[in-house]
Amino acid sequence: MNLNPKIDRIPFNLPFTTGKEMEYIKQAIATEKLSGNGKFTKKCQAWLESRIGCQKALLTHSCTAALEMTALLADIQPGDEVIMPSYTFVSTANAFVLRGGVPVFVDIRPDTLNLDETKIEQAITERTRAIVPVHYAGVSCEMDTIMEIARKHNLLVIEDAAQGMVSRYKGKPLGSIGHLAAVSFHDTKNIISGEGGALLINDPELIERAEIIWEKGTNRSQFFRGEVDKYSWVDVGSSYLPSEINAAFLWAQLELAEGITRKRLSTWRYYHQVFKKLEYEEILHCPIIPDDCQHNGHMYYLLLEDLATRTALIEQLKREGISAVFHYVPLHDSVAGQKFGRVVGEMKVTNDIADRLLRLPMFADIRESQMYGVSNIIEEFFAAYSHTSSDRNIFNSNNLNNLNVDVA
């Protein structure tokens, strides 16, 4: 199949718009308040509080900003340790490094690619202050176990739910389980505002200070509620609010959040059904969704045989006008990760996955013909590729630890 790249090029991501974004942005401009914390900011925050069930939501100009706020709220001091996976975006670690904290990297699970909860306790020391589970691809970490470990050791749990909007764990929305959480509305996510994020607060004792940090270290929020007669500088903080233009754009997205999620899940299921055959033939592995997790169709990835196979497939897709990409360079392998963090235990799964994972085009308005184009090229690639190897038994089922999971 030859795609014309000028006509049929299939991007990895294409931001989705609902059609109401400009209308709401014009309304925001008409209010003559664009600096943030206006009508649309409040509407978005109320939606998040209602839909996710958190005690308080504060919009931020990025998920990175929300994570930086969690580090301030956790009172991270130089030398304090924060346990997290290495297979995550740099902001997960950077937020704590900025406060002098030490990211402590542990391995991930081979099924969900999430923080391996069985390896957390061996990483805890007297300097440990928090655990940061990252919900990879919108699939939840094993939160009951993680929360129990945190209670046992008196640690904060900060959910990095950047990819987890409207996903659930045992019926609970991601972002509602840990003491704090951060979500993303970057244009690569399901629900977008271009750049944007939110801090979600589930511990009521942290709400007042979060508002102060959010408002540049002032008690401005309390002043506008009439709780103080003037506002002043009372704590550390920064400018974390997004503009009303971003909030107005986001509101148009949140109104259709469920519909957007349904579109993405439909694409996810299409890919999953098509690639089951190749998985059955032990040519590749598809994502695994544990029974307790309801995901949001944020990402569809394949786990290939090795780095060489992935590189060859990426190049083949590129020649056909299809953009498919790998994901993170593990933080423990990076220059900064080695400088600022430390590793506990072996990182076998992390190192292995980083070389073999390939993400496929995924966006809300992807057409069926585009999905077919992607799957057809991949099937053709492996039909030809299989002739170069007589042994296709490339995956060891023992690596999945015989977990009770649902791959449907």
From TrEMBL:
Keywords: Aminotransferase, Pyridoxal phosphate, Transferase. Its EC number is 2.6.1.-. It is an enzyme of class 2 (transferase). GO terms for molecular function: dTDP-4-amino-4,6-dideoxygalactose transaminase activity; pyridoxal phosphate binding. It holds the Pfam family DegT_DnrJ_EryC1. GO terms for biological process: polysaccharide biosynthetic process. InterPro entries: DegT/StrS_aminotransferase (IPR000653), PyrdxlP-dep_Trfase (IPR015424), PyrdxlP-dep_Trfase_major (IPR015421), WecE-like (IPR012749). The active site is at K189. The modification N6-(pyridoxal phosphate)lysine is found at K189. Coiled coil: none annotated. It comes from the Bacteria. Belongs to the DegT/DnrJ/EryC1 family. PANTHER family: DTDP-4-AMINO-4,6-DIDEOXYGALACTOSE TRANSAMINASE, TRANSAMINASE. This is TDP-4-oxo-6-deoxy-D-glucose transaminase. It comes from Hyella patelloides LEGE 07179. The lineage of its organism: Bacteria, Bacillati, Cyanobacteriota, Cyanophyceae, Pleurocapsales.
